[in-house]
Amino acid sequence: MPIFMWVILSVIIIQRLVELVIARSNEQWMKQRGAIEKGKQHYKWFIIVHTLFFLSLIAEIIFRNQQSISLNYVLFTAFIITQIGRIWCIATLGRFWNTKIIVAPQFDVIKRGPYKYVKHPNYIIVGIELFVIPSLFGAWLTAIVFPILHALLLYVRIPAEEKAVYGH
């Protein structure tokens, strides 16, 4: 695989690690203000699936050993659009953005930015990313399996989040 593709993959991994640091900081900030975590029992599955996503992606890239792969500009554009959406979600939620379900009743639910139009825009974006990112690298098995696993996780996550945030 060409070096520029490894650079793109490295940037994605670094971005996700930085997001985990931001989420941890936001979690501490919210808990200092009385927030509590809900849905702990399923969170480990998010960690497992997202870790396996990157391991699967890298393994498939290495296994396929595609030296002649070139950048697909349509997929790369889709990737850039998802990153803009991802940043928009994180920026809109600010200190309330997290990878966990953390709620504090004294704070209002944010209904601006992408949340004005869709209740869970970040989950949609992640689902698209889980297809687009591996597709960029020709990792078609990863591109098929992980959006399905993401949808299965959301089958548990969204009701848990709805109950924690809205009480239903």
TrEMBL record:
Q: Name one GO biological process term.
A: methylation
Q: One GO term of the cellular component aspect?
A: membrane
The way it spans or sits in the membrane comes to: Multi-pass membrane protein
User: Where would you find the membrane-spanning parts of this chain?
Assistant: 6-23, 43-63, 69-91, 123-149
Q: Tell me, in one coarse class, where this protein mainly resides.
A: membrane
Gene Ontology molecular function: protein C-terminal S-isoprenylcysteine carboxyl O-methyltransferase activity
Protein's name according to its UniProt entry: Methyltransferase
This chain's source organism reads Virgibacillus chiguensis
